[in-house]
Design brief:
Oligomer: heterodimer
Mean pLDDT of chain B: 97
Number of strands of chain A: 9
Low-confidence stretches of chain B: none
Radius of gyration of chain B: 13 Å
Number of helices of chain A: 0
Helix content of chain A: under 10%
Number of strands of chain B: 11
Strand content of chain A: over 45%
Structural class of chain B: mainly beta
Shape of chain B: globular
Helix content of chain B: under 10%
Largest interface: A-B, 27 and 21 residues
Number of helices of chain B: 0
């Protein structure tokens, strides 16, 4: 059971838009920045979004992030078949067992 | 070019020990915080441990506290994870990742299998 809750799967057609939610609490998302990672099959994760809504160099603006209260959202527009991957949110958790926490991951299928 | 290359994984019996290494290049290793993150087969990401740039601050996930030890040698541009009292549930691909809470570079991972 992950500290951050993500839907197990989402799907959409090529060219469409999809959003992936990440729900937490005041000890994590509510008081810390959120990052998002993309993991293509058989590869290491890749940073997509950091500090809630910033994109590292080289990440297209089709990817966006937002945060409100204790939830965060990753948005992907203009879906491509190459976007099929697992997506993870992550943030610091300031509770008694302080540490970084990840969501359980969301499998994106581009139909 | 930033590169992180893990090594040291393999098959180990329950209760055994293993030491993972992560060789860093392409950046000033001593200026960056580092982490270990693992992924069990078919499962999600699990953060394992964090170490500050100087090595003075360390955090562990509850699941490995008391069994794993993170360390670094800035002179050798290397990060380590000493894993003792290994359990079947420690079976995973172990990644080293650069950063404090935003992990901007990851290694390719090294597989640790704990089985008799």
């Amino acid at each position: 059971q992950s500290v951050l809750t993500q839907p197990p799967s989402v799907s959409a057609a090529p060219g469409q838009k999809v959003t992936i939610s990440c729900s937490g609490s005041s000890s994590n998302i509510g008081n810390n920045y959120v990052s998002w990672y993309q993991q293509l099959p058989g590869t290491a994760p890749k940073l997509l979004i950091y500090d809630n809504n910033k994109r590292p160099s080289g990440i297209p603006d089709r990817f966006s992030g937002s945060k409100s209260g204790t939830s965060a959202t990753l948005g992907i527009t203009g879906l491509q078949t190459g976007d099929e991957a697992d997506y993870y949110c992550g943030t610091w958790d300031s509770s008694l067992s302080a540490g970084l926490v990840f969501g359980g991951g969301t499998k994106l299928t581009v139909l | 070019e930033v590169q992180l290359v893990e090594s040291g994984g393999g098959l180990v019996q329950p209760g055994g020990s293993l030491r993972l290494s992560c060789a860093a290049s392409g950046f000033t290793f001593s200026s960056y915080e580092m982490n270990w993150v693992r992924q069990a087969p078919g499962k999600g990401l699990e953060w394992v441990s964090y170490i500050s740039s100087s090595g003075s601050t360390i955090y562990y996930a509850d699941s490995v506290k008391g069994r794993f030890t993170i360390s670094r040698d800035n002179a050798k541009n290397s990060l380590y994870l000493q894993m003792n009292s290994l359990r079947a549930e420690d079976t995973a691909v172990y990644y080293c990742a650069r950063g404090a809470v935003n992990f901007d570079y990851w290694g390719q991972g090294t597989l640790v299998t704990v089985s008799s």
